[in-house]
Amino acid sequence: MALARSSCSMVTTATSPDRWTKLFHQIAELNSKSKSHGGSEVEFKLFFLGRHGEGFHNVAEAKYGTPAWDAHWSKLDGDGEIVWGPDAELTPLGISQAQTAHNAFATEFASGLRIPDATYVSPLSRALRTFEITFDGLSGRRGRAESRKRPEQYGVHTCDLRRSRTFIFSTFSHITALPPKLDTHSPFPLTENDELWTPDERETNDHVAARVKTVLDVVFEKERGDFISITAHSGMINGFLASIGRPSFSLGTGGVLPVVVKGTRAHTCSRDTL
Asked: Which domain of life is it from (predicted)?
């Protein structure tokens, strides 16, 4: 059973002191009206798409320029001055950006923002660390290193070669995993070592969007709450936007993009056009 998805605009004032309260109320009203008209064929959810703070690979790409980065430097672990692979870490600025996101969450609580009903995070260290800092002390929130939502585009770039499953769950205490049975049968199981990354083939943007589509299907099928947080990477975020028919968006490191998504249950095996 597939879901046809589209984003939608909600009427709320960005400077209103109760802006988030109003937004959540609008979403609840829309979902209530949907249920009163024959069931749960249509559902609305608010997604917070968070990009990790600045990583050392971002510094290296800025240093050499994107063409040289893609053609040469991204395939290495470093240049003798900067180390970005495997699995690039946050820079001091990246840590500060994650702290800024944490402070923003705390501040927005006064305007009706609440803790997400579910949180997903990429299993790359820069995203895990960003998540950990962002939600530190906020109601004990734990994130899932969700294997269905494999992180950034995989392949070629050493910064996107993840560390072992053992390392992830022994290093990041705020992270949980899918139950082993579910993880084993997911499209992208979180195996002990990264089995998707290869040194000679980079995943396409279309394939990223297709992976994100499976994530959205799972979220709308399994998550009962209407507020979902995803901490990930620019490629995944633009894959998300592509999967709901929206243009790409250049979200800065440490940034958060709120998106309201309308999910419509499609009783067909054919793919819907958004």
From this structure: Eukaryota
